[in-house]
Amino acid sequence: MTSYDYDAPLSEAGDTTWKYQLLRDVISNYSKVDTVPANTTKQHIGPVGMIEQPGGNLIQLMEMAAEFGQQFIVKSQFPLPMEQMGQNHGIVVYQTVLPDSISLPADIDIELYGDRVYVFTEAWDVQISSRNRPYKTFTVSNRVLFILVEDNGHSNTGHVRYSYKYYQKGIIGNVTANGQILTDWTAFLLSNLLPRDPYESGSVYPGMLEKFLQTKKSGTNEDIVTN
Asked: Is the pTM of this model over 0.85?
């Protein structure tokens, strides 16, 4: 069985690892083991260029969400987890405005998030952190605050079994600027928003990228196309 656990005996490609060999050696002391097929040869694809999806510009997507209305936008006093907004996975952009009482640059602290967070700090510079890395404070120089959160998949093991809070996605808890709790949030639910308009080249904003990759199935002339 392959696994997203990169310390598993078999890799995601189905190759055996050193751990598999150790387990096999132990089992061989008590039972007959079959010959293990050699690991497959992998294609060297090289660099893969990415292109922006039509309408995949982040600003365009937020404008489209605003145009389509309540299905893609949620307003709340405090930021809500994805699940409370009807989205169980994907990407949400949280937006608020820092009040004049907060001096700039400001230190932004997020109580908890799941799982990867992008805080746009000045213009479209970004600071990134994730749940499984040490907590960090973000420093911003603009009053309009954008926080993009993406989930990295759900888990039903470990501490999440004992606390639903740690199972949720998006922002969980309060966000503060220089210690002051921020309110009046707008959340843009982007994952279910399909691109609509052709992408206009020359954009300097973050966006969603994709690449169609065509290759040959090993040992055949059969094409494999992935996105």
From this structure: no
